[in-house]
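notes to self, project folder thing:

trying the whole complex as one job this time. last attempt i did each chain seperately and stitching them together was a nightmare. four parts in total, labels are on each line so i dont mix them up again. if this works i'll redo the older ones the same way
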Amino acid sequence: MNINEAIDLLKEKGYKTTGKRKEILAYFEKADGYRTAKDLIQFMESRYKGISFDTVYRNLHLYNKVGILETTELNGEKQFRMNCTHHHHHHFICNDCGKTKKIEVCPMDEVQNTLAEYAIEGHKFEIYGLCPVCQSA
Amino acid sequence: MNINEAIDLLKEKGYKTTGKRKEILAYFEKADGYRTAKDLIQFMESRYKGISFDTVYRNLHLYNKVGILETTELNGEKQFRMNCTHHHHHHFICNDCGKTKKIEVCPMDEVQNTLAEYAIEGHKFEIYGLCPVCQSA
DNA sequence: TTGTAAATAAGAATGGTTCCTATTTGCGGA
DNA sequence: TCCGCAAATAGGAACCATTCTTATTTACAA
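result (full assembly):
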């Protein structure tokens, strides 16, 4: 998902396009990995001094709801990244820089039959560590 | 891991055996699934009125450190359960009652070679949903 | 039995997130 | 182009899980 797709999606669903919303999208497009609300607040502060937490959190949730951002949780903090739509996959997540690498393997196929009587509502498969760049740093 | 193994492990590592510590172990042995600190505090309150948060959190961390409890994070809240030692595996977790079912499949074998240049530090594979009991309830 | 380090109580403090109310702003319709 | 109104935002209080601090109590080794 890129900025223009995201803005179109917002318009389509009847949400207003504001400067702050565009800036948030630009931030995540450039980030290319998971970022915390705090990271975003810090960035937004530099553009709009006095921006309120609420604006940031409200938009993060909105973006997550409409499918612009996907989310995970690390060390008690929610993390957000641009949603890579298209097909189901998982991620390696760098503990240092938050960048991700697609993992095409999904273990759910193998597991389904062992959970026949269970109502599956979701699953999570994530790998944590250091990416090549952060290892050499 | 059962209560006696856990108590032995604590003694072995030089930690004191207190009534509260035994009670916490009894709670998790009976629970047979993930529980939050709040769940435990509520239970402990009924036995020791005025027990402090700190006692509960300190012991949860201690138990996690020495390997008596394992932990995960759901909806911004840490969850704890008795550690099923022995061999590496993952869990289905019931969103309703917190009970777990072992999943013997581990996707890491398949994934290793696609992450050759990455330093893997950990991974998480969990399946969420409703167990048979909670579906019919 | 006693000394001492470990464990605990009580509640303040912290950090992330959500809520509340008044004000401002985007944008469709006149 | 301008206006009205619903949506968005600012500012800060409130909330919740968790951690920290200090004084007191307790387990247990000697």
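what i see at first glance: Helices of chain A lie at 3-12, 19-31, 37-47, 53-66, 108-111, 132-136.
need to look closer tmrw
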